[in-house]
């Protein structure tokens, strides 16, 4: 079951999402997570922390599934 992560605005970058979801404390953690090859966006492997995500995108990090949702 995915965890909904509400964002402000229309998009968020992957690195920012990982920090917002408390999966990374800072940029160094994001680099390590992405460098490990364990991140998938909408089922495709992803290693760019600047990847733009929009509402409806699903990110899988290890066993954690995040769904980007529009904030209120």
Automatic annotation (TrEMBL):
InterPro entries on file: S4_RNA-bd_sf (IPR036986)
GO molecular function: RNA binding
Entry-linked PROSITE patterns: S4 (PS50889)
Pfam families: S4_2
Protein name according to UniProt: Unannotated protein
Organism in which the protein naturally occurs: freshwater metagenome
Lineage: unclassified sequences, metagenomes, ecological metagenomes
């Amino acid at each position: 079951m995915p965890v909904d992560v509400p964002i402000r605005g229309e998009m968020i970058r992957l690195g920012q999402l990982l920090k917002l979801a408390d999966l990374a404390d800072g940029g160094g953690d994001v680099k390590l997570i992405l460098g490990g090859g364990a991140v998938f966006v909408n089922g495709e492997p992803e290693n760019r922390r600047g990847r733009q995500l929009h509402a409806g995108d699903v990110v899988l990090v290890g066993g954690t599934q995040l769904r980007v949702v529009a904030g209120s």
